[in-house]
Amino acid sequence: MGWHDVALYGGMALGMAFGMTVAAVPMVRRWAFRLKMVAAPREDRWHAHPTPLLGGLAIGMALWGAFLTLWALGGLEDQWRKIGGLTILSSVLGLVGLVDDRKHLAPQTKLLVQIVLASFVVFLGFEVQWFVSKTANRFWSILWVVAITNAFNLLDNMDGLSAGVAAIACAFLILVEAVCGHPFQPIHLAVMALLGALAGFLVYNFHPASIFMGDCGSLPIGFFLAAASTQTNMAQNGPLVPILAVPVFIFCLPLFDMAFVSVMRPLFGRSISTGGRDHTSHRLVAIGLSERNTVLFLYGFSTLGGILALFMALQPVGTLPGIVVFLLLTLFLAVHLARVRTYGPGQKSIVERNGTLTVLWIQWTYKKRMFEVLLDVFMVAFAYWLSYFLRYEKPMYESVFPHFLKSLPLTVACCLGANLVVGIYRGVWRLTSTSDLVYHLGAASLGVALTVLSLVFLYDFQGFSRSIFGIFWALWLVALSGSRVSFCFMSELLKKVSRRNGRRVAIYGADERGSMILYRVLNGSEHVLCPVGFIDNDEKKQNARIYGYKVIGPWHRLEELIRTHRLDEILVPVEEAARLPFPAPEALDRQVVFRQVDLRIG
Fold first, then answer.
1. Which distant-in-sequence residues (6+ apart) come within 8 Å of 551 by Cβ?
2. How far is CA 28 from CA 17, 25, 94, 385, in A?
3. pLDDT tens across 169-201, in order?
4. Which residues, at least 6 apart from 442, have a Cβ–Cβ distance to it below 8 Å?
5. pTM for the full model?
6. pLDDT (tens digit, 9 = 90+) per residue, 280-290?
7. Which of 15, 19, 11 is nearest to 203 (CA)?
8. Structural domains of the chain, with CATH
């Protein structure tokens, strides 16, 4: 059977699973109410209304229906026993999840069951072939299945999130194989059936959800996907880096969320298995995104990971720049999310509770800027390697690569030394401005110059190309400035998002005083004010933008501006208040507060 047959069998499996799930969910929902399998609102859970569980049963029923149909039609060929075994083991794990939904099993019990079932699934032949050692392959396969199973279980914390991300993963598991021209395998039909079941479930599970999948859904879904990912041609053959990176990027969001929670919870003295509103999704809502937009944002994150996995499978080396950018953005996102307080004002981290650790933390993260330096080491090395990769074709690249390795430590030392001399590590990333770009230019230029002079002194510049260092200078400057500016940009973006639901305010005066008021609003501790723009009587400033905020109109159109932009407050410098005609409250369509702001010192 080839990929042309997938359109028939795969489309049938997907459509059948979708239809069966859509039809089964209302029935399962009634069962949940009768059996009192309902998730009640709790302080450590996200939903606000009692919501039935057992959605995983509908997904499982659809998957079994598609499997039996494909088996009867011969679509699974000689792999039906293997795929049937995986379906049975997934169903057993679903039953364990059902018991957990009912009686709340101990975490160690669930983990033990997962390890046992993962061992059985590896025995069936669902294992990677990454290492020479068969023992290592089997051990890693068990670890991989257990990890992905728990990652999807932890991700099931907001309407439509786990099901949607699982559907995206299904799509990219199939897409990578098809685009790369790998031979068709019957497991692909099973993945397409799961995709259809998940799509049908999202009809009821997307915000606002009328049913949850519960552990009887999230556990077997992660289990099934993890096992299926070991059967792709990419997981069985090819260079080590792509076969490791492709599945990791396809499952990037579940793995990121699991790793993030596993670090943050112990840091605040909480068990990893303890539920709470501290996941990636919850923190995004805490900074101002709506629940629906949060889920859509995370869908986009997962899709971007899948696209990178696709390009990594097609062109591993050419995808490296995109992967580096993606990893840097993920790092910045993690840093920002970690700053969101989700455990209550009275709960402190281990570092904050322990005086000695606090001193060490300040010493290494603030005074010595350890993380910033490590990031620069990585960026210098990558920019220097990319210079060689862009400059030379493959045969020549291999001949000059020893020169790259020989000069890399010297290049890193010179660039970091230049950063130290120029004062790069004295700046604060989130306060980076255009004036800092001059220092970045100086640091990059000095670093490259020191590198060239050192190579001239040590090796008489034999075997090195001047054009390499021209390319490296440009790449290092972009990386140095881009990392700082992107962090600043993300800080500003999150500030805007966090205030989106606050009181809408306009500021009078598109000048220095108005800018000072805007700065106070944006850097206030309470996210209660959402700047809309400036009001100014200067006709030349109309529709201009000041720090990204538009001049929305003059003061004499105030009543119209209040109505059009739904303003709740107007902030006026105290020096201007006496010269402005304030309208009577009864003349306005809505209640508006006029507040005078004193900018004088002393």
1. 510, 533, 534, 535, 536, 541, 542, 543, 544, 545
2. 15, 5, 15, 56
3. 999 999 988 887 777 788 888 999 999 999 999
4. 422
5. 0.75
6. 888 888 777 78
7. 19
8. 3-338 (no CATH), 371-496 (no CATH), 499-597 (3.40.50.720)
